Amino acid sequence: RSPQTGTPDHWSGMWALLLPCLPPRLTHCFSDRWETSSWSECSRTCGEGYQFRIVRCWKMISPGFDSSVYSDLCESADITRPEERKVCKNPACGPQWEMSEWSEVNPQANQ
């Protein structure tokens, strides 16, 4: 929780978006915007992997009423889409056993 507002931390980004929309600065508040979820855990526990997040386009329909809309709307407004995937690097993976199929017995091997 934020000590200033008492709101959960995951909402702090939303407040940054909403504060500029309070009167008298409402003119840009009905524009389209991208919003993202938090990054996922790394896809691998060692070595290089990926983290993912959800990216959605939102539009404020009226004060206090937002709607998720098609990505085309944000793209046509020439708003840079945030990354949905990024590389994550963990400590290198240690040695690992690798198994193959059993081979045929060579009868001449014991001579």
How would you spell out the order of helices and strands? HEEEEHE
Structural class label: alpha+beta
- Work out the strand percent: 25-35%
Strand order within the widest sheet? Answer: 1-3-4
Q: Say how many strands there are.
A: 5
- Portion of residues in helices? 10-25%
Distance between the termini: 76 Å
- SS element count, helices: 2
* Largest sheet, strands/sense/barrel: 3 strands, antiparallel
Shape: rod-shaped
- The low-confidence runs, each spanning 5 or more residues with pLDDT under 50, are none
> Could you report the average pLDDT, rounded to the nearest whole number?
79
Q: How large is the radius of gyration?
A: 26 Å
Keywords: Secreted, Signal
Subcellular location: Secreted
Pfam families: TSP1_ADAMTS
InterPro entries: ADAMTS_ADAMTS-like, TSP1_rpt, TSP1_rpt_sf
